Prior knowledge:
Layout: E1 3-14, E2 17-28, E3 32-36, H1 43-50, E4 58-63, E5 66-67, H2 73-79, E6 83-86, H3 98-102, H4 104-109, H5 114-127, H6 143-155, E7 161-165, H7 173-190, E8 193-197, H8 201-207, E9 210-215, E10 218-223, H9 225-230, H10 234-240, H11 247-253
Parallel strand pairs: 3-8, 3-9, 6-7, 7-8
Antiparallel strand pairs: 1-2, 1-4, 4-5, 9-10
Helix pairs in contact: 5-6
Amino acid sequence: MKHKIVVENLVKKFGNREILKNVSFEVYEREVFVLMGGSGSGKSTTIKHIIGLLKPTSGKIVIDGINITQLSQNELIEFRKKMGYLFQENALFDSLKIWENVGFYYLENTKKDKKWIYNLAKEKLAMVGLKGVEELYPSQLSGGMRKRVSLARAIATNPEIILYDEPTSGLDPVMSAIIDKLILKLRDEIGVTSIVVTHDLESAFSIADRMAIIHKGKIYAIGTPEEIKKNEDPIVQQFISRKPDGPITKELFG
Ligand SMILES: Nc1ncnc2c1ncn2[C@@H]1O[C@H](COP(=O)(O)OP(=O)(O)OP(=O)(O)O)[C@@H](O)[C@H]1O
Ligand SMILES: [Mg+2]
């Protein structure tokens, strides 16, 4: 299997706090790779490096054989076309209509006519279960609907790679299951490679080809869902079995 994304010895310091400690993992082409870990463990920071929003203190991010940490700002913008990113905090533009948010890339960077962009937005919105919201503004939607608009925007450019930062948080169980199905459908029908950050254990175990557990900036386990279930590391076990007592609790509360 071909490596699509390679994260190699990624170290990130904010001031003198080391947030990522030699994080390394590979993601294969057409794989759904789930990154799990507690709040503040470094999940969002990791995927922000993969999209090139953050520069590492040291280490490499190699995508399709290219070390993106060495690209210039313009080269990076060009490179990002193949990637879709669902921000954890949605990051919709409040002053733009829903269809303009979804079609933002095309409005900003291409000469496609508005009708074409509108229809594309409508099609992508339908894929996440939203109809008739094209002309509304983000403030007129519920939190879960806004999440799905962000998801529609992340898939709008038909990216080869999609990075999802908590795609199902704040969604009801049925909608979460629909989003899980969509992630798998994009893999199976278009061959998308995905990294999904989530706290949702049920969702993680149902969509992951492989998964990694990160804790305090360090990867504790990488493997298939079956391998992770059998992993005996106490941190991994406490995390996946939702236990209130264990090594994670000791670190938090002493
Ligand atoms: N720009 C920044 N400047 C300083 N510290 C930061 C910055 N971004 C993140 N951090 C710190 O890095 C650590 C990891 O943050 P990150 O957002 O990656 O966590 P996370 O695993 O995504 O958590 P959550 O599940 O709550 O979203 C936190 O301690 C956070 O305070
Ligand atoms: Mg986060």
